[in-house]
Design a protein that fits this description.
Largest sheet: 8 strands, mixed
Distance between the termini: 33 Å
Radius of gyration: 20 Å
Oligomer: single chain
Shape: globular
Helix content: 25-40%
Low-confidence stretches: none
Strand order of the largest sheet: 8-11-12-7-13-14-15-16
Length: 300
């Protein structure tokens, strides 16, 4: 059955989602909305880069939401966070989409997030957030080695100022491994400086440290130091095993109490690019109505 996809926001990230969608055989039409005309050139260039594109896909482009985009099967929202929640509502009310894959950061405030939760719930929307790290094979493997009843210690130490953006991924990984429904903040030290982000003008990130606990006593620590440059290193430990993961280098180690805690390498041979992973997420949503990403409610 042919499917129609709407992509809202086709900048650096949205165009990578577009590359993934261009490879799905069931998709017959892709509608792209971006209010910035210069994004058209990027969109056209990125589609040409796809080696195994579905040649039957019809593409439409507009700088405004158009009525002939209505009635689609999935909307991917890659606009900046300040517009994300309002755009989900507009796409549903104007075009009738009920399935959404949205980027994080979901919103700029708790109130705005709760507003989108209430709106999606009352209108029976299905919304997934692109916290894709939990779908990595390395993290599925680590989770398989943990006793779900035992608490864990989870920490990420990093340089640069990624506490707001990367911190969302780390928090989601903690929830994924621990299985908790919520985290209780136990400490915070957030720099007063707003650090300019490479993701665009008027976008900023944070540095600092956050600590939290789950209901079964698992501990969560993330520290992003604004004066250092090293990428993040993740450490996870339970009573019987421990792991180290460097996502930047795609390098991981594991050790177990039964082996006297000797470290050994865990091979990572995965493609973590958005242009690859969104193909699986979107394909699963179209076929089964669910995917490996956390829902809007899970992320809350």
């Amino acid at each position: 059955m042919s499917k129609r996809i709407l992509i809202v926001g086709c900048g650096q990230l949205g165009s990578r989602h577009l590359q993934a969608i261009a490879q799905i055989g069931d998709v017959s039409e892709v509608c792209v909305f971006d209010p910035h005309p210069e994004a058209l050139k990027l969109w056209q260039a990125r589609v040409l880069e796809v080696a195994h594109a579905n040649k039957k896909i019809k593409y439409q482009w507009a700088t405004q939401l158009q009525s002939d985009f209505a009635g689609g099967d999935l909307c991917i929202n890659a606009m900046q966070a300040k517009d994300r929640c309002s755009m989900v509502q507009q796409v549903y009310e104007k075009l009738g989409y009920k399935n959404f894959l949205i980027e994080k950061i979901v919103s700029q405030s708790v109130d705005e997030y709760e507003g989108l939760l209430n709106f999606s719930g009352s209108n029976r929307l299905a919304v997934w957030v692109n916290c894709k790290s939990r779908a990595y094979g390395i993290h599925k493997y680590i989770k398989s080695q943990l006793n779900p009843d035992e608490p864990i210690i989870f920490s990420v130490i990093a340089g640069n100022h990624g506490l707001a953006n990367n911190g969302v991924h780390e928090a989601d990984l903690f929830v994924f491994h621990d299985g908790c429904r919520e985290m209780v903040l136990t400490g915070q030290r957030v720099d007063r400086t707003l650090y300019p982000s490479k993701r665009g003008d008027a976008l900023y990130d944070l540095a600092g440290t956050l600590t939290a606990v789950s209901e079964k006593g698992s501990e969560f620590i993330i520290c992003y130091d604004g004066g250092r440059t090293a990428p993040g290193t993740l450490f996870l430990q339970s009573t019987g095993c421990r792991f180290m993961v460097d996502h930047f280098q795609k390098f991981a180690l594991e050790s177990y109490a039964k082996d006297n805690w000797q470290w050994k390498t865990v091979p990572i041979n995965e493609n973590w690019a958005v242009s690859f992973m969104t193909r699986q997420f979107a394909g699963d949503i179209l076929k089964t109505g669910t995917c490996g990403l956390p829902t809007l409610k899970d992320c809350y």
